[in-house]
Amino acid sequence: MESLRLPYVAVLGIDGSVLASRGVPVTPVDDVPLVHQRLVVGVLRLAGVRGGPVVGPVLGALAHQLAPVVRALDLSRELQASRERLVLSREEERRRLRRELHDGLGPALAGLTLRVDTARNTVGRDPAVDRALRGLRDDVQEAVADVRRIVEDLRPAALDDLGLVGAIDALARRMGAGPLRVAVEADGLLPPLPAATEVAAYRIAQEAVTNAVRHAGPTAAEVRVRVGTDTDRSLTLVVEDDGCGPRTAPGRPGGGNGLATMREWAEELGGALVVGRRSGGGTVVRATLPLAAASGGTA
Q1: For residues 234-252, average pLDDT
Q2: Residues of the domain holding 117
Q3: Which of 9, 53, 63, 196 minimizes the number of CB atoms within 10 Å of its CB?
Q4: Which residues face 274 on adjacent strands?
Q5: Strands (E), the chain
Q6: What CATH number should be reported for the domain holding residue 207?
């Protein structure tokens, strides 16, 4: 656009959002539709366009090149939004199933065990009947154990029992039993959070502290949790330690499966995770998990 000497150029999506711009907006402006495969996917907005024999063809060629790029960006956004919805639905369903198994089927099976014991005491000492009832009791107890394993695999139990901050605090006490001191700080009482956000934040905190213990040799670590205001609908999780520092360049991907996994947990919710060096030595892991798209899924 420098060759056309335009004071302002912007590329807008189909929803009117500014995807890219340069210069300061002035009026009047000219809008050139961006059409990809007969579908209008955006607008090329320009200010200060002057007429001339080459201006029209140049703008047409530019719009033709920009249209597939804008469409690809739009499809990428739709894919990410779909991925976020799937993750949110999955974790909400897991939370629901865990509650039903924990509060319904588990106690029912435990009660069945007591009824079998009562039957054994009632029928007397017939060896055949007693063996059959003992076998039934063993089967029920095995089913109870299976239900407990399924419940634990669906979702960390501490999240439902203690909430996010309480679960992280319990985790900190377990991991701080040795020479490592782990402190947990939160900005007051957190509001109800989507199940997917709770799980991601808990697992990132767990993995970040575990990575520090395995690779950095820290003596102290701190986990901070903050939920933004109405205009900043996100949860921020910061994990700091005073160890030997990150194994990769700050903010760069890589560094082993642990960092890659933490980054994946954040990104599948539309968030981000950055690893950097702590002032004074050590590592800082900062995860930002948006809440706006998930606000309707809390329970």
Answers
A1: 75
A2: 88-154
A3: 53
A4: 286
A5: 8-13, 18-23, 29-36, 39-47, 181-186, 220-227, 234-241, 272-277, 283-290
A6: 3.30.565.10
